[in-house]
Specification:
Layout (H helix, E strand, L loop, with lengths): L8 E5 L9 E5 L2 E8 L2 E6 L13 E3 L2 E3 L6 E3 L18 E4 L2 E4 L11 H12 L2 H13 L4 H19 L2 H18 L8 H11 L18 H14 L2 H14 L3 H12 L9 H33 L8 H12 L1 H9 L10 H8 L4 H14 L3 H18 L8 H21 L1 H17 L24 H13 L3 H13 L4 H14 L3 H17 L7 H13 L7 H11 L4 H6 L1
Antiparallel strand pairs: 1-9, 2-3, 3-4, 5-6, 6-7, 8-9
Helix pairs in contact: 1-2, 2-5, 2-22, 3-5, 3-9, 4-5, 4-9, 4-20, 6-7, 7-9, 8-9, 9-15, 11-16, 12-13, 13-16, 14-15, 14-21, 15-16, 15-20, 17-18, 17-19, 18-21, 19-20, 19-21, 20-21
């Protein structure tokens, strides 16, 4: 193809293009569709803006081009989309010179410079994961920073949460949002799209026009607001809490007190049995830490209020007993915070584990009390509780009601103790220990035989010739759903001295690409964190063994990877045909 003095480039001879028989040409790396229709010549992007199907395989009627895959239609001349909200088709100027067809790539293109932002908004409002994948992929491919993309997710999430969600569903979607972001950070940019899509999905949904909450009038102090928030939390009146939080923000100078106060509320004895609230406040703390009040205020103030003032129902007999025990320990915890014992490294983890999962409420709580009295650091206790949960996941029978979700929550809650300690201090974290212990007590129905953490789980090594072959064996065992084999294969890989970090990364990719990755995302994020934090512990391998077993047992033959790969091809300007020509 020869260049003319202008921006026009020759793409074909006129006699090469017949009425009703379009052809594709490649110009500057882009696939362009040429049409002759009613005697006129048209040039459009060959990639359908919906999902990338080649438009040369579409139908033309009365100047309207319709894609054969999903039926989306476009004005051939102007590129306007009749079907989607912002998926206009790129069209290019044409000149016919002495029976030769020239097009100007630079002079055409999409008619909306902000189309990728509009597409993200469409995906966020609809909650359609394909639209979200496509929008995120296009934005990143066009040089929009990941930070800006995420800021838009959080801001939309704030509008959605305040108008559509209550505490429970809001907490779940928050978990997808923050854990999708955290897991994405573990991967190189080219492998981040699926967790970023999950994060976007967590922020997505209808966003109504609820009026902004105005601060309280008059002379208001932080001390008043703090007292009112505690009262409203006890009385389960979330709207009053939100009003107080917005007022505190407008007073200024109290931002760093809001999350610690929220933590103090959710470790009150009457919150026992609603342990996910501890997780959700931790996620809000992490959201604020990463995005700041300017971006996250609406989401944090609203969801924190709904969590603190959530309905909790009347406790049953055993929970009433547990609440009474926790109330009786408050003076002990306060005294411990004021007069901390000397820290000790003498910690009988096996005895602690036996008490925690004993199924006896007195033993479960006494185990926590004894560890605190002895001066065992809360982070050390958290590590032990994480690995007890991981060990239970690694050994639970997979034949009937394995309790994967409950075990995953044990691990995530135990890990959240570190976040509680970091943002709210020792006294709150000490109370939180009993709430997490209640989670283990509640799961006594799982009836998993307790085994000391110090006991060897087997020393055999992999028969694979090298690390890559050993990884391939583990992933193949997962993908072929060999639940009875995958734990052994994972342990043998680790016993061989191969890279655990690499295996965790590959396991994560396998989980994310599977549709059930949505269920495992929170535990995957925890595994990434705790693998580093539990370094040197002999039971650490159980984190990966348990994760591999859960992944295998819930494996399906459908996957989330196809949408992500299609979105990435789309962002590169490739059509569906390009996939088969590679």
């Amino acid at each position: 193809m020869s260049n003319t003095p202008s921006n026009f480039v020759k793409v074909a001879d006129l006699d090469e293009l017949a009425e009703g028989k379009p052809r594709a040409v490649r110009v500057e790396g882009q696939s362009v569709a040429l049409f002759k229709h009613n005697g006129n010549i048209y040039a459009t992007d060959n990639q359908c803006p919906h999902m990338g199907y080649p438009l040369t395989r579409g139908r033309v009627r009365g100047g309207v081009l319709t894609c054969d895959w999903h039926g989306w239609s476009y004005d051939m001349g102007g590129g306007g989309c009749f079907t989607g909200g912002c998926d206009d088709l790129s069209t290019f100027p044409i000149e016919v010179r002495e029976d030769e067809i020239y097009i100007d790539i630079a002079g055409g293109g999409n008619k909306r410079d902000d189309a990728h932002f509009l597409l993200l908004q469409e995906g966020l409002l609809s909650g359609d994961n394909w639209t979200l994948s496509k929008a995120v992929a296009i934005m990143l491919a066009r040089g929009v920073s990941e930070e800006e993309v995420l800021n838009r997710l959080v801001r939309h999430g704030g509008r959605h949460f305040v108008t559509e969600l209550e505490a429970g569903n809001g907490g779940w979607q928050l978990a997808y949002l923050i854990n999708g972001v955290k897991v994405a950070s573990q991967y190189d940019p080219e492998d981040r799209l699926i967790p970023l899509m999950m994060a976007a999905s967590g922020a997505s949904g209808r966003a109504g026009d609820r009026p902004a909450v105005t601060p309280l009038p008059g002379e208001i102090t932080w001390e008043k607001l703090e007292r009112w928030i505690r009262v409203f939390s006890a009385d389960r009146e979330w709207e009053g809490i939100e009003k107080c939080l917005i007022t505190a923000r407008r007073l200024g100078g109290h931002d760093d007190k809001i999350i610690p106060l929220a933590y103090e509320c959710v470790v009150e004895p009457f919150f026992l049995g609603h342990n996910e609230s501890l997780l959700y406040i931790g996620y809000l703390a992490e959201l604020l830490e990463q995005f700041g009040w300017e971006v996250a205020e609406e989401l944090v103030c609203n969801l924190a209020a709904k969590i603190l003032g959530r309905g909790r129902g009347a406790p049953d007999e055993i929970r009433r007993e547990a609440i009474s025990k926790l109330e009786s320990l408050e003076d002990f915890i306060a005294d411990l915070a004021a007069n901390p014992p000397a820290q000790t490294t003498d910690f009988d983890e096996d005895a602690f584990a036996a008490g925690l999962v004993s199924g006896d409420l007195d033993d479960t709580f006494d185990t926590i009390t004894k560890a605190l009295k002895s001066g065992v650091e809360i982070n050390r206790i958290a590590s032990t509780m994480v690995l007890i949960g991981a060990d239970r996941m690694a050994r639970t029978p997979a034949s009937m009601s394995p309790g994967w979700w409950e075990l995953g929550r044990e691990i995530s809650l135990a890990s959240s103790l570190r976040t509680t300690l970091r943002f709210a201090g020792f006294q709150v974290a000490a109370k939180a220990l009993y709430h997490v212990a209640w989670e283990f007590f509640s799961n006594r129905w799982l009836n998993i035989r307790q085994m000391p953490l110090s006991t060897s789980r087997g020393a055999t090594t992999s028969n694979a010739s090298n690390e890559q072959a050993a990884i391939d064996e583990v992933i193949n065992t997962i993908e072929t759903v060999q639940i009875q084999e995958v734990g052994r294969m994972t342990r043998q890989y680790l016993n061989s001295g191969f890279s655990a970090d690499r295996l965790l990364s590959e396991l994560g990719q396998c989980i994310l690409k599977d549709d059930n990755g949505w269920d495992i995302l929170n535990t995957l994020r925890t595994a990434f964190d705790e693998w580093k934090l539990c370094q040197g512990h002999p039971a650490r391998t159980q984190l990966l063994v348990g994760l591999a077993r859960w992944t295998t047992d819930v494996r399906q033959n459908t996957n989330s990877d196809s949408a992500a790969r299609t979105a990435q091809r789309f962002a590169r300007g490739e059509t569906a045909v390009d996939l088969y020509e590679q």
